[in-house]
Amino acid sequence: MLAPYTGGSISIRVIYVPLTEGQFTTLQVYSGWDSISGKKIDIDSLEGSFDEKFMMRVVEMAYKLGFNRGEVPAGDSQWNKSVNVEVPQWYEYGSDMTKGDMLFAILYMMDKHDFDMVSCSYLKTKEEKRLWYINNFGWDTDTQAPIDLSDYRDSSAIYCAVEFNYNPDKAEYFESELDKALYLADKNYKLGTGEEFGSDEEKRLWLLENYSYDISSGEVIDKEIVDALIAYQKYMDENYTGERKCILFYLDNNDVPEMVATGSINDYQLFSYYNGSVVGYKDVMSPYWMYSFNYNERSGNLRVEEGGAGNHYRYVFYTLSDGNLNEAGYCDYQYDWDEDKTFLVINDTEVSKEEFEAFENQLGDTAKGESFGAYGSTVYSSVLSAYDALATAE
């Protein structure tokens, strides 16, 4: 405490973190200390251990990473003479190691002890070491030459994942193709083509389509559900322009949702997914008329309320089963201003209020279930956002 301090107090908190032997060894390297041999890391001891071409590559990488700290005179090391950039003389480490310093420390620990600072463990096989050199230096020990990373975004990590099924971040092999795809997707690399993802939504759709994996929930979901979501989204993309909205809900008795979609304020349509195809029921949601609908979840029963000019409303009842939507009947409510009378009609036949209500009760159990309107806040801009809302509500 250099400044005078009166009338106050200071506290120091010490946190103990349990470390494995490998983690402790790695931590010591960051201070330039080799705890395995019990002495400081001596970079000069690397000279003569490697092919000159490889060391030129390491020196260039270290220089680019910030090896040159301050005004350190150039040394007369043969390594310095063999590279066309000015590289400072090797020096004793302080505690503030740069990335370039660390590159040599990483190499030192591998050369002297076969110790990998990523996994904090010792490598035992030639294959493990080869992958280690590829990942850290882009160098193939089999060919004694740098590898061509031009098709892998100049990333040795991507190269290891694609070509060797190896996760360099964890120093272990991927357990599944999905694990590999997720690792590469996180690096914006599409497995199989090497293309970039245009958006997070495109990435999510791609993982769903190819692996039935939903990054939103972190779970693998039923392929038939995935196929339906992909098909719905494709249909919307191909058939609706401008603002597109949709609702997903469970109408028939399975786990594949149905969809109501629109491309304009007056054009709503009901869809289901059956036998690998999107089935549309255009007549159900006729332009202008459709106002709202009610349904009992998974019952297959649907009641559509259509509203026209004046006091004229129609309730149409449908049943959905095995991809077929059938009309079960309809009833009209119409008020005649001239006669000051309400007409109640069932299937084109005028009926009494009691008959009308009985008909509604017979086919209208849907009225007691869920309902939503065409213009309400429950519509979504994409199939994925509609599915998220549906899955969250379960």
| Helix-strand makeup class | alpha+beta
- Mean of residue pLDDT values: 80
Shape assignment: elongated
Q: Give the tally of β-strands.
A: 21
- The amount of beta strand, in percent, is 15-25%
Q: How much helical structure, as a percent, in the residues? A: 25-40%
- Roughly how many Å apart are the termini? 59 Å
Largest sheet: 7 strands, antiparallel
In spatial order, strands of the major sheet run 20-19-18-17-16-15-21
Q: Rg to the nearest angstrom?
A: 34 Å
How many domains, in number, for the residues? 3
Pick out the low-confidence regions.
69-95
Q: How many helices does DSSP assign?
A: 11
Which terms would index this structure?
alpha+beta, 3 domains, 7-stranded antiparallel sheet, 4-stranded antiparallel sheet, 11 helices, elongated
Report on the structure:
The protein has 394 residues and is α+β, with helices and mostly antiparallel strands. The protein folds into three domains: 14-113, no CATH class; 123-195, no CATH class; 240-393, no CATH class. It contains eleven helices and 21 strands. The protein has helices at residues 21-29, 52-64, 78-81, 99-113, 126-137, 156-164, 177-186, 200-211, 223-239, 353-363, 383-393; strands at residues 33-34, 39-40, 115-116, 121-122, 139-140, 145-146, 166-167, 172-173, 213-214, 219-220, 245-249, 258-264, 267-274, 277-281, 290-295, 301-307, 312-321, 324-336, 341-346, 349-350, 370-373. The strands form seven sheets. A seven-stranded antiparallel sheet has the order 20-19-18-17-16-15-21, with helices on one face. Helix 2 (52-64) runs antiparallel to helix 4 and helix 5 (126-137) packs antiparallel against helix 6 (156-164). The protein starts with 20 loop residues before the first helix and ends with a helix. The model is unreliable at 69-95 (pLDDT under 50).
